[in-house]
Design goal:
By secondary structure, this protein is mostly helical. The protein has helices spanning about 1-10, 15, 40-50, 70-80, 85-110, 125-145; strands at about 20-25, 35, 110-115, 120. It has two domains: about 1-110, no CATH class; about 110-145, no CATH class. The protein has a two-stranded antiparallel ribbon. The longest helix has 23 residues, at about 85-110.
Amino acid sequence: VEIMFSNFLAGDFEQLIKLKPVILPFHPKLVKKVKPLFRIPESEIALYALFNNLPVREVECPHVVGSRLLKRKKLLEIFSKENPSFKYQLLSVFLKKLIPILEEKEREKVFTTCEICGFPASTKICGSCRRIIEIKSILKNMQHT
């Protein structure tokens, strides 16, 4: 819910649609994505791991201090103290009202294939290939210094 809330406040609707519990592939080369723990609060997942002695990596991101996400998470906690079911209500509105609107816009999107790898993409070069190009560029620049 925290990520959904943060993306909504940031107006990042492309990322919002990716938060659905089930994402169907829009191309035969892609697979369906399923998030089985979608409705389970983070605290309950942590308790489950603790009670079952599952290994948990407890490392805080060095960039979290002062981040907007952390501030928005605190804001959600304030709302939840006033109304304990607030996060569930927000999630329900997200799934029942906002997602159908976003899915309609998503259907209007035109997809192409990446010029490099041939996988589906919404731009000429897919995100994976863009990252590879960027990493290669960084490595090349590091070799020259």
